[in-house]
What does this fold into?
Amino acid sequence: MELTLWKRWLLVGVAASAFNAAAWAADKAKVVILATGGTIAGAGASTANSASYQAAKVPVDKLMLSVPELASVAQVRGEQVFQIASESFTNSHLLQLGKRISALAKQQDVDGIVVTHGTDTLEETAYFLNLTVHTDKPIVVVGSMRPGTAMSADGALNLYNAVVVAASRDARGKGVLVTMNDQIDSGRDVGKGINIKTNAFASQWGSLGMVVEGRNYWFRAPVKRHTMNSEFDIDKLDQLAPVEIVYGYGNVPASLYEAAAAAGARAIIHAGTGNGSVADRIVPTLQNLRGKGVQIIRSARVPAGFVLRNAEQPDDKHDWVVAHDLNPQKARILAAVALSQFSDSQNLQRVFWEY
It folds into this structure.
């Protein structure tokens, strides 16, 4: 039986809509979400629990389903890499995660990668990836300060913003990024400054930009070496050098530094007071350890500023290294990566200036 005119138009309209939907989907960026656990995957006993909860409870598929708006931004798929609280991250976790990201970044059907992560060590993982993964595709690390079960949970919007950034061409080539509290920060600079507020992450040098209602606004770009321009390559990295941190304080004993060296540390990050200051009674111990081949790196426990070389201590004379503006935990990451490739203090100081 011949189709009536209106039925013909209906079929044409359906076919056109299907074609347009397929074309629209083909145009959308393809983003992979790698889940590692953390608060963003956490759950509290009640909606009133924003600071007390169990981390790493919600799997990636349910995490994605909780933000249906992701489908309007990109073609998104997820992988559960780990399901742990981030304070339990080890060097092995960093290497495994980095290698998976590197493999995905090489795929033609991947335009950007989001890593959901606990906030306790998020800044360390972001910096490690910034140093070692060779790609200009956006890698965005994201977490939350409150579990998804809390009344004013921040994870859903943080994840949405992360996918927006990862799907954006204008985020390419800017290194590893962190999106929290509407801000876009460099994975190199950002740090966690407070444990019970949603504006916990910031950089002393300022954010790179913001995400507002699904749109990126950029204000500056990173200048330190990263990703594609890094001399370190995750594909060639199978282990990290052992590096330990000793926190400086009044009455700190030399035995802590000696114990770190005895445990096999190839470098010790001295998290010093002020300008990475070293107590007079500790100086001979650090000189002795340096003479035995242990690298001594002066960082600072203060949250901002940077350590000046040959100020407070004659670093040239002692053959010590300064961490510049890197906090102790990020200094550990860089030293662990760098010392897996070379062992001299001159090159080690160079990378602290360049990265």
Q: What stands out?
A: The CA atoms of residues 89 and 290 lie 29 Å apart.
